[in-house]
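Materials and Methods. Structural model of DUF4440 domain-containing protein. The 129-residue sequence of DUF4440 domain-containing protein from Vibrio maritimus was retrieved and submitted for structure prediction as follows.
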Amino acid sequence: MEVIIEQEIALHQFEVRQDKVEIERLIHPDFREVGRSGNSYDFKSIIRMMEAEKPSNVQVHSQNYECVALDPTVQLLTYETALIDDSGQVSNFTKRSSIWVLVGEFWQLKYHQGTPCDVFAIKISGKGA
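The predicted structure was written out as C-alpha cells:
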C-alpha cells in the first residue's frame, strides 16, 4: 500500500508534524502509541509533543517497509528507522509497526509502536531515506 508508506514517511517530517490540519487528517482521533521509550501516548498527548518540537538537522531514515492487510480497511505496516545527524552519525535504531485504518476515503494512523533494536545496515535509496 504505497499511500500508507508515503503517509508514514510524511509523519517523520517536521513540516508535516507542525501542520495541525495535516496531522488531524493523518492521525485517527482514537490513536494510541507505545513509543521507543516505552511511554504511552494518545492523540492529545502526541499532538502536544509534536507542537513542542523544534526544527532539527537530524533526519529520520526509514527502510524495509512491509504492509500486511489485516482486513480490507486495516493495514499493518512494519519497518525500521534510525536517526542520522548532519555529521552522518547514526543512532536510535528502531523496529516500528503501525496500524492504519481506512476512514471514508482516507487512511489514518490508529496505532504505532517503536521498539529499540540492534544496529542494522542502512540502505540508501530515494524512498524513505
